Amino acid sequence: MKFIFGLTVLLVAVFVNEISVSSGTSQPVCGYKNAEDEMIFLKYFPYTKKGEEYVDFGKDGICLKKVTCSETFTNQIEECKTFPVTCENKKKYNGVFPACCVKC
């Protein structure tokens, strides 16, 4: 009987320790406040060496900037004003950004 009680106490202690260890470690993220004043959290994936991307759209449907979480967990921000996008040349850009910087 003492053996079963001791084994139960040991299992409970291990289980509680596992919960505290798993919930105590969190992955670092990048934080970005968008145009609508909402906090957006982006992850960086070390195995693929790629950061999560977020395209910030204004209320008019035109995007303002693209934010990427970097390896050092800082935001890399690309703004529309740095890209010479017009209605005539927007098809040459691959993906959503920066083609979304103009509305035609």
The secondary-structure element order is: HEEEEEE
The rounded Rg comes to 23 Å
Q: Note the gap between the termini.
A: 79 Å
Q: What's the total helix number?
A: 1
Q: What structural class is derived from the secondary structure elements?
A: alpha+beta
Number of domains: 1
Oligomerization state of this entry? single chain
| Helical residues, percent | 10-25%
Total beta strand runs: 6
| Average of pLDDT | 82
User: What is the overall silhouette?
Assistant: globular
Major β-sheet annotation: 3 strands, antiparallel
Low-pLDDT parts are 2-23
- Estimated share of beta-strand residues: 25-35%
Spatial order of the strands forming the largest sheet: 1-2-3
Organism: Lucilia cuprina (Green bottle fly)
Protein name: Single domain-containing protein
Keywords: Signal
Explain what you see.
The protein is α+β, with helices and mostly antiparallel strands and 104 residues long. It has one domain. The protein is 22% helix and 30% strand. The chain is built from 1 helix and 6 strands, in the order αββββββ. The strands form 2 sheets. The protein has a 3-stranded antiparallel β-sheet, with no helix packed on it. Strands 4-5-6 form a 3-stranded antiparallel β-sheet, with no helix packed on it. The longest helix has 23 residues, at 2-24. It comes from Lucilia cuprina.
Key phrases:
single chain, 104 residues, alpha+beta, three-stranded antiparallel β-sheet, 1 helix, 30% strand, globular, Single domain-containing protein, signal
Summarize it.
By secondary structure, the protein is α+β, with helices and mostly antiparallel strands.
